[in-house]
């Protein structure tokens, strides 16, 4: 029963973006107040999960495809953004049967120390995953509820020489939530902060279109992602 429960829990968790790194982007903003931006991002992450010392799930590969919208709140100092899309398990050597899931989130970029070509700042985003459905437990359809939040924060410089951009620095990921399974019990999803780093580069096209790509890494996961944004 113990291993059955752990299998169910991990089968739910690995479909959630709360357990996979997603595209983060630059730690500073160039948007003007009341300026709008629309775009899309893709991220591919791979990670190891472990439920107790003797129940590892390794090399779980997840994809997230998100539509994004942002608005400037202060000239080159602060922006607010939101995103929504789907996450799916691209490759699972543990043979868990999972499907695409809906995700959404909010975030902000703050330029703390602006400069001519070199800025310093912070980007933070909060990704929520909630789902209520049924799963097969010993051949019986069992109701479950999953509620998880994933917080990612990146700090550091952003260098913009001409049309190019280069950014990176330390990164933190923090996860909290719970799973409630009828007839079994409620399990908390809590992890210690995962400290890592990220680095990215991009280019400004035609003055209002930007394309960036980045790498992220923690002791338990790594990811790469890319984004295309149009500002109006």
Per-chain topology:
Blueprint: H1 2-13, E1 36-50, E2 56-74, E3 78-91, E4 101-113, E5 118-137, E6 140-159, E7 164-181, E8 186-190, E9 194-205, E10 209-218, E11 221-231
Antiparallel strand pairs: 1-2, 1-11, 2-3, 3-4, 4-5, 5-6, 6-7, 7-8, 7-9, 9-10, 10-11
Descriptors for this entry?
elongated; ten-stranded antiparallel barrel; 232 residues; Lipocalin
What does this structure look like?
With 232 residues, the protein is mostly beta strands. It has a single domain, classed as Lipocalin. Strands 1-2-3-4-5-6-7-9-10-11 form a ten-stranded antiparallel β-barrel. It starts with a helix and ends with a strand. About 7% of the residues have low confidence.
User: Which spans have pLDDT < 50 for at least 5 consecutive residues?
Assistant: 14-18, 51-56, 92-97
What is the total tally of β strands? 11
Looking across the biggest beta sheet, what order are the strands in?
Answer: 1-2-3-4-5-6-7-9-10-11
CATH architecture: Beta Barrel
* Order of SSEs: HEEEEEEEEEEE
CATH topology: Lipocalin
The number of helical elements comes to: 1
Portion of residues within helices? under 10%
CA radius of gyration: 19 Å
What share of residues are in beta strands?
over 45%
The biggest sheet amounts to: 10 strands, antiparallel, barrel
Mean pLDDT: 81
Overall geometry comes to: elongated
Q: What is the total number of structural domains?
A: 1
